[in-house]
């Protein structure tokens, strides 16, 4: 099984996403603003993971693309809400104006709401048992994501004074949850419990590592590379408040290695190769 | 089958809702604010409809209460977002401080997000086919609700200049959608298509009538009765911008009568009696 390069996958996925959007019968006002944020430059890392792991399990490609689409929509929705003035107050996202800057705040709020619901409409198109499995795991995932975002803001506003393990818990919820879903949704569909648990763990480790690489980028990057206001994260509680950049990087690399071990035990060799390229890409950028 | 009075039902439902909340394993920060809005004085009209119509179909009461709970949660979530400064900017709701006034804006946004997801976690506890039916109908319902809210704000901000039929379309989406779901979810679970369609229509008519009664109350009520800032709706596009209060009331009464006819054809006699009492209550208050 040849794992698709992420750049090739992005072309395929974005093309497919346009046709998914067409089939959704959305009102124009929200469709425009959701599509704006959706197509504004994401790497499609989560859908790429879903698609390529799912192919090892021989799951229908159309289904994998649909699950990836649902995941990317909710990721988009949560970023739209995170950027709002009352939360992160970000004017830019991936080098473009954030949704509320472009379309005004009321539309950004309602566009996010729409994005939180759409995946469930998409999952209702699956078979009965697949649909229930997806809904159960996905709703659990998104509740974690929202809780992680809540902790993040609560740390920043000094409502909670976090320990290292609180920060790790926040990362796990805010960033890892959706990666856990992306790594593990294929064995879930086939009710392969052991592989589900292994891949969930791979997703968790990958997510935390990914978040740390992202934090490091915010320190060393420049606007062109990062595409958002830098040092906005000054008041954010990241590992970098507790560990030196060097130690944080070692910590992240260890977590990444654990992900690789799990993938190796499943013999996802081709996938590992591409994932390692993506890791270098994330670190460099 | 004896239809439960709405006041008795509210006691039962609120008690049950506390135990549902306990079982949901939510983070404290969002749980507190969601419960604040959830238990801040709703009539429980939608869960009452679900419960009492569902009993005609012999659906398990625990299931009906769960569906009612899910519906009331999303209703609460949508009101929390509607009240935000960027949308309706309401300081009060049902005589209490609105969520963002009490807990700050960032928590209100994330609490609403949580409320948009929770119902799907609840529906994942149903049987495979029930779960998929509920998810499909419910996600469609909430997409309509969000679109209705979008139209409402777009009219108010003069982005769209609405005709009477645009306003009716907005009412149908913003208010009727959840009533359609409440009236029709029981035959949906049993896959009784004809009764599903009839009850959906009953819910649609009831919802529009209900919204008009509510508009009339905003004109004639006082703060104690209505529990929110009056005349906030000045810039809102309601039927009262197009019809005199007398004509609007006749229009609403006709829609209500159509609802009754449908219920009569299904021989829901006892339910009709209680619904008529509720109608008088809504009009008086």
UniProtKB/TrEMBL annotation, chains A, B:
It comes from the Bacteria. Keywords: Isoprene biosynthesis, Magnesium, Metal-binding, Transferase. Its cofactor is Mg(2+). PANTHER family: FARNESYL DIPHOSPHATE SYNTHASE (PTHR43281). Belongs to the FPP/GGPP synthase family. It comes from Marinitoga aeolica. This is Polyprenyl synthetase family protein. InterPro entries: Isoprenoid_synthase_dom_sf, Polyprenyl_synt, Polyprenyl_synt_CS.
């Amino acid at each position: 099984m040849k794992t698709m390069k992420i750049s090739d996958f992005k072309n395929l996925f974005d093309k497919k996403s346009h046709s998914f959007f067409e089939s959704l019968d959305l009102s124009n006002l929200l469709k425009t603003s959701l599509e704006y944020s959706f197509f504004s430059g994401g790497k499609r890392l989560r859908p790429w993971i879903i698609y390529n792991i799912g192919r090892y399990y021989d799951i229908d490609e159309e289904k994998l693309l649909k699950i990836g689409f649902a995941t990317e929509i909710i990721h988009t929705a949560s970023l739209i809400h995170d950027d709002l003035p009352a939360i992160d107050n970000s004017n830019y996202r991936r080098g473009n104006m954030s949704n509320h800057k472009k379309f005004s705040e009321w539309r950004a709020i309602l566009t996010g709401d729409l994005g939180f619901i759409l995946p469930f409409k998409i999952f209702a198109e699956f078979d009965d048992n697949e649909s229930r499995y997806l809904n159960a795991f996905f709703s659990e995932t998104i509740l974690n994501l929202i809780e992680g975002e809540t902790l993040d803001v609560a740390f920043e506003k000094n409502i909670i004074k976090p320990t290292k393990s609180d920060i790790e818990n926040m990362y796990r919820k805010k960033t890892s949850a959706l990666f856990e879903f992306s790594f593990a949704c294929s064995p879930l569909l086939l009710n392969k419990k052991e592989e589900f648990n292994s891949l969930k763990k791979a997703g968790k480790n990958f997510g935390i590592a990914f978040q740390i690489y992202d934090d490091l980028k915010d320190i060393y990057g420049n606007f062109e590379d990062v595409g958002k206001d830098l040092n906005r994260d000054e008041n954010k509680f990241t590992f970098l408040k507790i560990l030196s950049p060097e130690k944080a990087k070692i910590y992240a690399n260890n977590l990444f290695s654990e992900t690789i071990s799990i993938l190796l035990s499943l013999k996802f060799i081709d996938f590992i190769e591409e994932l390692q390229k993506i890791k270098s890409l994330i670190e460099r950028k």
